[in-house]
Amino acid sequence: MAQSQGEVATPKTLVVNGFPRTYRIYVPARRGNRRLPLLIALHGGGGSGAGMERLTQFSRLARQMGFVVIYPDGHNRHWHDRRDPRFLPQASVEDILFINQLLDAVQQEYDIDPQRIYATGISNGGFFSQTLVCDLSHRLAAVAVVASNLPQALAADCPATQPVPILYILGTQDPLIPYEGGVIRGRKGRQGVVYSAHASLDYWRNRYQLPARPQEIALPDRVNDQTTARQITYQRGQLAVSLITIDGGGHTWPGGSQYLPKSFIGRVSQDFDGSQMVWQFVSRYRRSP
Predict the structure, then answer these.
(1) Domains of the chain (ranges plus CATH)?
(2) Which terminus of the chain, N or C, has less C-beta within 10 A?
(3) Which pTM value belongs to this model?
């Protein structure tokens, strides 16, 4: 669905460590005096904030639901997601510092609820969302990860101080990120090893000491597109980790466009709207002060 003129994010620049970093921001009309939640939407490798806005249509959803969404741009269209410990970014480019200072800047300019800051991302942006869990757990209320398992290198060095609810949305036929885990190969020779989808979920379940018995449901099969979806969730009180498996799904955003050929990224499931699913999950949670 195309966005109307009033639903397009505004491009901005923030100087971090003397280096200009760019992003886009969409702010809906205020509804009363309540503070606004904030969602960080992170593009995949080779992408951009503008592309992430088009793919996810989060600005349209933000207008409907009343939240601010920011679409940061990675340096050279890439995030330092720590999946390959051999790869180090340019010295002046610190992505965690960028996101931290971006949150500061947006909170100063707009009336943001500091207990309702969320992050999501696809592919490289999904890996980086997990990096934010490890490095900025004190600022995030929940995270949703699309087409990205947990990198083993990140799991081995994750200094998170607070538990953050996490949703994974992963396709069994992803040709770029193996659902069953293993070696991935990224841009410019960057590699890494990821856990399987279920091992990724188990890492956080064990870390958060959640019950071993999950809740399992099948999502409605609304479209005959050779995909089906099922969800498994481990929960205790207001803390949960969840995995939506898209059987037959590829390296894609559910409900989004077929942004590259199926031969390269696999199928896009149209059984549910990935952006609505992400917002439905993360918006349940508030970070404890």
Answers:
(1) 5-282 (3.40.50.1820)
(2) C
(3) 0.95
